[in-house]
Amino acid sequence: MFRADSLYQAVLNTQNMEQLQNFGLLVYYLSQGVGVTLGVTVIALSTGMVFGTILGIMRVYGGPVLGGFAATYSMVIRGIPVIVVLFILFFVIAQFINLSPFLAGAIALGIASSAYQSEIFRGAIMAVPPGQMMAARAIGMSRLKAISFVILPQAFRLAIPPWSNEAAIVLKDSSLVYVLGVPEILRRAQYVSARTHEPFIAFAAAALLYFVLTFLTNRGLDVLERRYRLQM
Questions:
Q1: CA-CA 20 to 30 A from 230: which of 100, 110, 180, 183?
Q2: In terms of Cα–Cα distance, which of 223, 125, 116 is closest to 163?
């Protein structure tokens, strides 16, 4: 009986080791899509930040025309699902402009993110004390220079906490580009699921990678926020 129990336990241990090895290989295969996921995320966040900053400035300093345009853009884009923006860019606009699935997906996410980032930067700009602008104009700076060299540096630092949430959202939304065939983490998990018929393991490994990436992104931005925090 003792030998039988020992043999059974040995078989279980061997099976467990094989499962762990297979899971490790699966994570390694999916991790090869991390670079694609991060590439999409960086391009999307950068695009969203550029346009979001411009739109935020227009909301605060653009007057009724430019401010109204920025507000309308933000309202419309935020009211459309991100995947619909992605489909419009890839299946409609990309017919006239040569865009790869990777670039189309990243730009589409950037357009969607710009609407949310515009609200973040609008709030941050408005949080800068009005006296900062008055003091800059009093020493002879033009309005544009005052915005560029006085208001925005402070607004960017104030925007780090809400912007970190947007960064995490865009990182997770980068999984949407799998519908265009971009071989990022989720697309690779779908390949594994289709071939092994074990969707739980494949998508659990993908979820683990997304969690690690999101956790590291948030912790890194927390450090940045503490370092550059403004004492208002």
A1: 110
A2: 116
Calculate mean pLDDT across residues 117-124: 96
What are the CA-CA distances from residue 42 to residues 17, 46, 139, 151, 184 (Å)? 37, 6, 38, 25, 14
The Cα 161–Cα 225 span in angstroms is: 7
* pTM for the full predicted model: 0.87
Convert the pLDDT of each residue in 172-224 to its tens digit.
Answer: 999 999 999 999 999 999 988 888 888 888 898 899 999 999 999 999 999 98
- C-alpha angle 9-198-196 in degrees, rounded to nearest 5: 100
Q: How many residues does the chain have?
A: 232
Tokens of 105: 């997906």
CATH homologous superfamily of 37-227 equals MetI-like (1.10.3720.10)
User: Each residue of 22-70: pLDDT tens digit?
Assistant: 777 888 888 889 999 999 999 999 999 999 999 999 999 999 999 999 9
Domain spans of the chain, in order of start: 37-227
Residue 156 reports pLDDT greater than 60: yes
